[in-house]
Design goal:
- The chain is mainly alpha-helical and 334 residues long.
- The chain has 2 domains: 256 residues, Fic-like fold (Orthogonal Bundle); 63 residues, Winged helix-like DNA-binding domain superfamily/Winged helix DNA-binding domain (Arc Repressor Mutant, subunit A, Orthogonal Bundle), CATH 1.10.10.
- It is 61% helix and 6% strand.
- The strands form 3 sheets. It has a two-stranded antiparallel ribbon with strand order 1-2.
- Helix 3 packs across helix 4 and helix 9 crosses helix 11.
- The longest helix has 34 residues.
- It is elongated, with a radius of gyration of 23 Å.
Length: 334
Protein backbone atom coordinates (compact mmCIF):
# COMPACT_ATOMS: atom_id res chain seq x y z
CA UNK A 1 0.00 0.00 0.00
CA UNK A 2 2.80 2.43 0.92
CA UNK A 3 4.61 1.62 -2.33
CA UNK A 4 1.49 2.52 -4.30
CA UNK A 5 0.98 5.74 -2.34
CA UNK A 6 4.60 6.78 -2.87
CA UNK A 7 4.50 6.03 -6.60
CA UNK A 8 1.24 8.00 -6.87
CA UNK A 9 2.86 11.00 -5.16
CA UNK A 10 5.84 10.76 -7.48
CA UNK A 11 3.68 10.60 -10.60
CA UNK A 12 1.95 13.81 -9.48
CA UNK A 13 5.29 15.63 -9.46
CA UNK A 14 6.83 17.34 -12.45
CA UNK A 15 9.42 15.54 -14.59
CA UNK A 16 12.43 17.43 -13.22
CA UNK A 17 11.33 16.85 -9.61
CA UNK A 18 10.92 13.11 -10.29
CA UNK A 19 14.41 13.03 -11.78
CA UNK A 20 15.77 14.79 -8.69
CA UNK A 21 14.13 12.28 -6.31
CA UNK A 22 15.43 9.34 -8.37
CA UNK A 23 18.94 10.82 -8.46
CA UNK A 24 18.90 11.48 -4.70
CA UNK A 25 17.61 7.98 -3.87
CA UNK A 26 20.15 6.19 -6.07
CA UNK A 27 23.00 8.35 -4.74
CA UNK A 28 22.01 7.59 -1.16
CA UNK A 29 21.76 3.90 -1.96
CA UNK A 30 25.28 3.72 -3.38
CA UNK A 31 26.88 5.90 -0.69
CA UNK A 32 25.12 4.31 2.28
CA UNK A 33 25.53 0.71 1.11
CA UNK A 34 29.29 1.27 1.08
CA UNK A 35 29.16 3.13 4.40
CA UNK A 36 27.56 0.08 6.04
CA UNK A 37 30.81 -1.73 5.20
CA UNK A 38 32.92 1.12 6.62
CA UNK A 39 33.79 2.63 3.24
CA UNK A 40 33.03 6.32 2.68
CA UNK A 41 32.47 7.42 -0.92
CA UNK A 42 32.42 11.04 -2.11
CA UNK A 43 28.73 11.97 -2.37
CA UNK A 44 29.18 14.51 -5.19
CA UNK A 45 31.26 12.09 -7.28
CA UNK A 46 28.65 9.35 -6.87
CA UNK A 47 25.83 11.75 -7.76
CA UNK A 48 27.68 13.00 -10.84
CA UNK A 49 28.43 9.46 -12.01
CA UNK A 50 24.76 8.45 -11.72
CA UNK A 51 23.52 11.65 -13.37
CA UNK A 52 25.92 11.19 -16.28
CA UNK A 53 24.87 7.55 -16.83
CA UNK A 54 21.15 8.35 -16.64
CA UNK A 55 21.43 11.46 -18.82
CA UNK A 56 20.21 13.74 -16.02
CA UNK A 57 21.42 17.35 -16.18
CA UNK A 58 22.24 18.00 -12.53
CA UNK A 59 24.69 20.83 -13.20
CA UNK A 60 28.36 20.91 -12.29
CA UNK A 61 29.15 17.30 -13.16
CA UNK A 62 32.50 16.23 -11.74
CA UNK A 63 34.80 13.33 -12.47
CA UNK A 64 34.73 10.27 -10.24
CA UNK A 65 37.36 7.61 -9.67
CA UNK A 66 37.37 4.11 -11.09
CA UNK A 67 36.12 2.53 -7.86
CA UNK A 68 33.08 4.80 -7.63
CA UNK A 69 32.29 4.20 -11.30
CA UNK A 70 32.32 0.45 -10.60
CA UNK A 71 30.00 0.67 -7.59
CA UNK A 72 27.59 2.89 -9.55
CA UNK A 73 27.74 0.54 -12.53
CA UNK A 74 26.69 -2.41 -10.35
CA UNK A 75 23.77 -0.57 -8.74
CA UNK A 76 22.43 0.80 -12.01
CA UNK A 77 22.76 -2.57 -13.72
CA UNK A 78 20.62 -4.07 -10.95
CA UNK A 79 17.92 -1.39 -10.89
CA UNK A 80 17.75 -0.21 -14.51
CA UNK A 81 17.79 -3.78 -15.87
CA UNK A 82 15.65 -5.28 -13.12
CA UNK A 83 13.66 -7.48 -15.52
CA UNK A 84 16.78 -9.09 -17.04
CA UNK A 85 17.53 -12.57 -15.61
CA UNK A 86 20.14 -12.74 -12.87
CA UNK A 87 22.96 -15.04 -14.00
CA UNK A 88 26.26 -16.22 -12.62
CA UNK A 89 28.16 -14.15 -15.18
CA UNK A 90 26.15 -11.05 -14.32
CA UNK A 91 27.00 -11.48 -10.63
CA UNK A 92 30.67 -11.99 -11.53
CA UNK A 93 30.54 -8.74 -13.50
CA UNK A 94 29.13 -6.88 -10.50
CA UNK A 95 31.85 -8.30 -8.27
CA UNK A 96 34.57 -7.31 -10.72
CA UNK A 97 33.09 -3.80 -10.93
CA UNK A 98 33.30 -3.49 -7.12
CA UNK A 99 36.98 -4.50 -7.06
CA UNK A 100 38.56 -3.20 -10.30
CA UNK A 101 42.13 -3.58 -8.96
CA UNK A 102 41.68 -7.14 -7.67
CA UNK A 103 42.27 -5.89 -4.13
CA UNK A 104 40.00 -5.18 -1.17
CA UNK A 105 42.04 -2.58 0.69
CA UNK A 106 45.54 -4.08 1.02
CA UNK A 107 44.33 -7.65 0.48
CA UNK A 108 44.39 -9.57 -2.79
CA UNK A 109 41.04 -11.32 -3.33
CA UNK A 110 39.43 -13.63 -5.87
CA UNK A 111 37.53 -11.31 -8.20
CA UNK A 112 34.74 -12.18 -10.62
CA UNK A 113 34.34 -15.73 -9.33
CA UNK A 114 33.04 -17.59 -6.31
CA UNK A 115 35.33 -17.98 -3.33
CA UNK A 116 37.43 -21.14 -3.01
CA UNK A 117 38.29 -20.74 0.68
CA UNK A 118 36.22 -21.24 3.81
CA UNK A 119 34.89 -18.07 5.40
CA UNK A 120 34.09 -17.00 8.94
CA UNK A 121 32.52 -13.67 9.85
CA UNK A 122 34.30 -12.37 12.95
CA UNK A 123 34.78 -9.11 14.82
CA UNK A 124 36.91 -7.90 17.71
CA UNK A 125 40.60 -7.42 18.43
CA UNK A 126 43.14 -10.12 17.68
CA UNK A 127 42.94 -12.83 20.32
CA UNK A 128 39.45 -11.67 21.35
CA UNK A 129 37.61 -12.40 18.13
CA UNK A 130 33.88 -13.09 18.22
CA UNK A 131 32.56 -15.57 15.64
CA UNK A 132 29.27 -14.30 14.20
CA UNK A 133 28.76 -16.75 11.40
CA UNK A 134 30.45 -19.52 9.46
CA UNK A 135 29.48 -19.34 5.79
CA UNK A 136 28.53 -22.22 3.52
CA UNK A 137 31.49 -24.49 2.75
CA UNK A 138 33.40 -23.37 -0.34
CA UNK A 139 32.67 -26.55 -2.27
CA UNK A 140 28.93 -26.00 -1.72
CA UNK A 141 28.87 -22.40 -2.93
CA UNK A 142 28.29 -23.13 -6.63
CA UNK A 143 25.46 -25.68 -6.16
CA UNK A 144 23.83 -23.38 -3.58
CA UNK A 145 24.11 -20.41 -5.94
CA UNK A 146 22.70 -22.43 -8.84
CA UNK A 147 19.64 -23.17 -6.71
CA UNK A 148 19.42 -19.53 -5.56
CA UNK A 149 19.60 -18.15 -9.13
CA UNK A 150 16.91 -20.53 -10.37
CA UNK A 151 14.62 -19.48 -7.51
CA UNK A 152 15.42 -15.76 -7.96
CA UNK A 153 14.51 -15.82 -11.65
CA UNK A 154 11.65 -18.27 -11.81
CA UNK A 155 9.77 -18.83 -8.56
CA UNK A 156 6.54 -16.82 -8.80
CA UNK A 157 4.90 -18.15 -5.63
CA UNK A 158 6.20 -15.31 -3.49
CA UNK A 159 5.09 -11.70 -3.30
CA UNK A 160 8.10 -9.83 -4.81
CA UNK A 161 8.55 -7.69 -1.69
CA UNK A 162 8.76 -10.82 0.50
CA UNK A 163 11.00 -12.33 -2.14
CA UNK A 164 13.34 -9.30 -1.87
CA UNK A 165 13.66 -9.98 1.86
CA UNK A 166 14.31 -13.70 1.35
CA UNK A 167 16.82 -13.06 -1.46
CA UNK A 168 18.83 -10.68 0.74
CA UNK A 169 18.97 -13.13 3.63
CA UNK A 170 19.68 -16.19 1.48
CA UNK A 171 22.51 -14.51 -0.43
CA UNK A 172 24.17 -13.37 2.80
CA UNK A 173 23.86 -16.92 4.19
CA UNK A 174 25.73 -18.32 1.18
CA UNK A 175 28.32 -15.51 1.21
CA UNK A 176 29.60 -16.58 -2.21
CA UNK A 177 32.42 -14.05 -2.67
CA UNK A 178 35.64 -13.18 -0.86
CA UNK A 179 34.28 -9.67 -0.22
CA UNK A 180 31.43 -7.41 -1.31
CA UNK A 181 28.63 -9.80 -0.32
CA UNK A 182 26.73 -7.16 1.68
CA UNK A 183 26.75 -4.61 -1.14
CA UNK A 184 25.75 -7.19 -3.75
CA UNK A 185 23.04 -8.54 -1.44
CA UNK A 186 21.58 -5.04 -1.08
CA UNK A 187 21.75 -4.54 -4.87
CA UNK A 188 19.73 -7.77 -5.24
CA UNK A 189 17.19 -6.33 -2.80
CA UNK A 190 16.84 -3.19 -4.92
CA UNK A 191 16.57 -5.29 -8.06
CA UNK A 192 13.71 -7.35 -6.64
CA UNK A 193 11.94 -4.25 -5.27
CA UNK A 194 12.17 -2.76 -8.79
CA UNK A 195 10.48 -5.92 -10.06
CA UNK A 196 7.80 -5.52 -7.39
CA UNK A 197 7.07 -2.01 -8.67
CA UNK A 198 7.73 -2.88 -12.33
CA UNK A 199 9.80 0.29 -12.55
CA UNK A 200 13.46 1.27 -12.82
CA UNK A 201 12.73 4.56 -11.04
CA UNK A 202 13.94 4.40 -7.43
CA UNK A 203 12.31 6.76 -4.97
CA UNK A 204 13.58 5.42 -1.66
CA UNK A 205 16.82 3.94 -0.32
CA UNK A 206 16.79 0.71 1.66
CA UNK A 207 20.55 0.96 2.20
CA UNK A 208 20.19 4.37 3.82
CA UNK A 209 17.60 2.99 6.23
CA UNK A 210 19.63 -0.16 6.91
CA UNK A 211 22.54 2.10 7.91
CA UNK A 212 20.25 3.95 10.34
CA UNK A 213 19.16 0.59 11.81
CA UNK A 214 22.51 -1.13 11.32
CA UNK A 215 22.85 -2.52 14.85
CA UNK A 216 19.47 -4.23 14.68
CA UNK A 217 20.19 -5.36 11.09
CA UNK A 218 23.22 -7.35 12.22
CA UNK A 219 21.49 -8.60 15.36
CA UNK A 220 18.58 -10.08 13.43
CA UNK A 221 20.82 -11.50 10.69
CA UNK A 222 22.98 -13.26 13.26
CA UNK A 223 20.05 -14.54 15.31
CA UNK A 224 18.07 -15.90 12.37
CA UNK A 225 21.16 -17.45 10.74
CA UNK A 226 21.44 -19.71 13.77
CA UNK A 227 17.72 -20.54 13.90
CA UNK A 228 16.07 -23.73 12.70
CA UNK A 229 14.87 -22.25 9.43
CA UNK A 230 12.15 -19.90 10.70
CA UNK A 231 13.02 -16.47 9.27
CA UNK A 232 9.85 -14.69 10.42
CA UNK A 233 11.80 -12.27 12.61
CA UNK A 234 13.98 -11.29 9.65
CA UNK A 235 10.93 -10.74 7.41
CA UNK A 236 9.28 -8.56 10.05
CA UNK A 237 12.43 -6.49 10.46
CA UNK A 238 12.87 -6.13 6.70
CA UNK A 239 9.28 -4.92 6.16
CA UNK A 240 9.63 -2.49 9.07
CA UNK A 241 12.85 -1.13 7.55
CA UNK A 242 11.20 -0.82 4.13
CA UNK A 243 8.32 1.17 5.65
CA UNK A 244 10.75 3.52 7.41
CA UNK A 245 12.73 4.06 4.19
CA UNK A 246 9.52 5.18 2.47
CA UNK A 247 8.68 7.58 5.30
CA UNK A 248 12.19 9.06 4.95
CA UNK A 249 11.58 9.54 1.22
CA UNK A 250 8.44 11.56 1.90
CA UNK A 251 10.65 14.06 3.77
CA UNK A 252 13.09 14.15 0.86
CA UNK A 253 10.21 14.74 -1.55
CA UNK A 254 9.03 17.77 0.43
CA UNK A 255 12.52 19.30 0.24
CA UNK A 256 12.79 18.63 -3.49
CA UNK A 257 9.35 20.13 -4.14
CA UNK A 258 10.41 23.24 -2.22
CA UNK A 259 13.57 23.43 -4.34
CA UNK A 260 11.60 22.96 -7.59
CA UNK A 261 9.09 25.66 -6.58
CA UNK A 262 11.97 28.02 -5.74
CA UNK A 263 13.62 27.66 -9.14
CA UNK A 264 10.27 28.01 -10.92
CA UNK A 265 9.65 31.26 -9.00
CA UNK A 266 13.15 32.53 -9.86
CA UNK A 267 13.47 31.20 -13.41
CA UNK A 268 13.87 34.78 -14.70
CA UNK A 269 15.90 36.12 -11.75
CA UNK A 270 19.53 36.90 -12.71
CA UNK A 271 21.59 34.34 -10.73
CA UNK A 272 25.22 33.58 -11.59
CA UNK A 273 26.76 30.10 -11.58
CA UNK A 274 28.36 30.51 -8.13
CA UNK A 275 25.06 31.58 -6.61
CA UNK A 276 23.22 28.73 -8.31
CA UNK A 277 25.76 26.22 -6.99
CA UNK A 278 25.46 27.45 -3.41
CA UNK A 279 21.66 27.77 -3.47
CA UNK A 280 21.36 24.16 -4.63
CA UNK A 281 23.67 23.10 -1.82
CA UNK A 282 21.53 24.97 0.71
CA UNK A 283 18.48 23.05 -0.50
CA UNK A 284 20.42 19.75 -0.36
CA UNK A 285 21.05 19.54 3.41
CA UNK A 286 23.97 21.97 3.62
CA UNK A 287 26.25 21.04 6.54
CA UNK A 288 27.16 23.67 9.10
CA UNK A 289 26.67 27.42 8.84
CA UNK A 290 26.99 29.42 5.65
CA UNK A 291 29.60 32.16 6.05
CA UNK A 292 31.40 34.29 3.51
CA UNK A 293 34.63 32.31 3.90
CA UNK A 294 32.84 29.01 3.28
CA UNK A 295 31.08 30.43 0.20
CA UNK A 296 34.47 31.58 -1.15
CA UNK A 297 36.07 28.21 -0.52
CA UNK A 298 33.24 26.18 -2.08
CA UNK A 299 32.98 28.40 -5.17
CA UNK A 300 36.75 28.84 -5.49
CA UNK A 301 36.40 32.62 -5.41
CA UNK A 302 37.73 35.48 -3.26
CA UNK A 303 36.06 36.63 -0.05
CA UNK A 304 35.14 39.93 -1.74
CA UNK A 305 33.42 38.09 -4.61
CA UNK A 306 31.63 35.81 -2.16
CA UNK A 307 30.36 38.79 -0.15
CA UNK A 308 29.10 40.50 -3.33
CA UNK A 309 27.26 37.29 -4.34
CA UNK A 310 25.65 37.02 -0.90
CA UNK A 311 24.63 40.70 -0.70
CA UNK A 312 23.08 40.43 -4.17
CA UNK A 313 20.92 37.51 -3.04
CA UNK A 314 19.93 39.37 0.14
CA UNK A 315 18.77 42.33 -1.99
CA UNK A 316 16.73 39.92 -4.12
CA UNK A 317 15.03 38.50 -1.01
CA UNK A 318 16.56 35.04 -1.41
CA UNK A 319 19.02 35.00 1.52
CA UNK A 320 18.93 36.71 4.89
CA UNK A 321 21.52 37.25 7.60
CA UNK A 322 21.03 35.63 10.99
CA UNK A 323 21.42 37.55 14.27
CA UNK A 324 25.18 37.01 14.44
CA UNK A 325 27.17 39.93 13.04
CA UNK A 326 30.72 40.80 12.04
CA UNK A 327 32.99 37.91 11.19
CA UNK A 328 30.41 35.50 12.66
CA UNK A 329 27.74 36.54 10.16
CA UNK A 330 25.75 33.56 8.87
CA UNK A 331 23.24 33.41 6.05
CA UNK A 332 20.15 31.26 5.48
CA UNK A 333 17.41 30.95 2.88
CA UNK A 334 14.47 33.29 3.34
Amino acid sequence: MMQGKLIGQMNAMGFSAKEEVTLSALTLDVVKSSEIEGEFLNYDQVRSSIARRLGINSGGLIQSNRHIEGVVEMMLNATQNYDTPLTEQRLFGWHAALFPTGYSGPYKIEVGKYRTEEMQIVSGAMGKEKLHYEAVEAQQVKPEMNYFLKWFNNDGKFDPVIKAAIAHFWFIIIHPFDDGNGRIGRALTDMMLSRAENSAERYYSMSNQILVERKRYYEVLQKVQHSTGDITEWLEWFLHCLKNSMHATENIMRKILRKAEFWKLHEHTPINHRQRLMLNKLFDDFEGKLQTSKWAKMTKSSNDTALRDIKDLIEKGILKQTDEGGRSANYILC
